[in-house]
Amino acid sequence: MRDPKPRTVSAAPFRDRVVHHALCSVIAPIFDRGFIFHSYANREGKGTHRAVARYERWRDRYRHVLRCDIYRYFPAIDHEHLKAAFRRRIACPQTLWLLDAIVDGSNRQEAVNLYYSGDDLFAPFERRRGLPIGNLTSQFFANLFLDGLDHFVTEVLHAPYLRYVDDFALFHDDPTVLADWRDRIATWLARRRLSLHPRKTVILETDVAATFLGYELMPGRRRLPEANVRRFRNRLSAWPARLHARAGRATARPGAPRVSSGTAMMNGGPLTKAAARPEAAPVLAIRRRAPPPGSARSRGFHPPVARPETGA
Questions:
Q1: pTM (predicted TM-score)
Q2: Mean pLDDT across the stretch 235-250?
Q3: What share of the chain is helix, strand, coil (3-state, %, to 5)?
């Protein structure tokens, strides 16, 4: 995957994904009870829209923000530290065996050969690390891996703080306090073999426009960046052709998840000029098709079917 930046996305076989979903449905409630309120990724009732809304509320209250990002987060997650996080909440041997098997089965990720305190020459090459982007378990494990950071920032630093996976923000009126927090966070992360991104970790004034979780945020305004709108428009324009090519198949909705996610993203903020243009994308009408009378599906929900509009 190269849009918006090059990254390796892996998808497990279907039967493995069934196991992943079943496993997460069991362990997620156990771990979720220990998560802080303002951890917004991969949790029921959270998500990007609520994270952005919380960011805006604290932005309007404080004068400065420390924006942090972890350098190559998914490829850098250390397996030994991740397995230790499992064992702080899970005691069942069979469940731990399955969790370890999923982590050990991760395919090789891009190299993140960084040295930390106590390492010898070969330590970065001998330690297993990295989770594949694209699996439900990877998303959950990535959120769990930084749960300790959440408690450190909120209970030790006592900072106004929110996190979405590896993108997090701290707020204060004094930038020197934020600089001290940044150094203490870097020390905490180093003990877990993680590093702050040197370019994306910055201290900003809150009255300056900033991008957070895919939105351009300004005091009193929220909008989608032009690049995001253009990317969604290109995907949407290719969807009717794919739908037509797969006509007659049982699963003739190849682009529906992308359309749904893109629409939800746009519903979180005003459209940019690019999205507002009539030629921005083909017009699609989402209709409910009536099932045959007397059929089993006529007594229940029928999924919507997307069709290109034939008229103005």
A1: 0.73
A2: 62
A3: 45, 15, 40
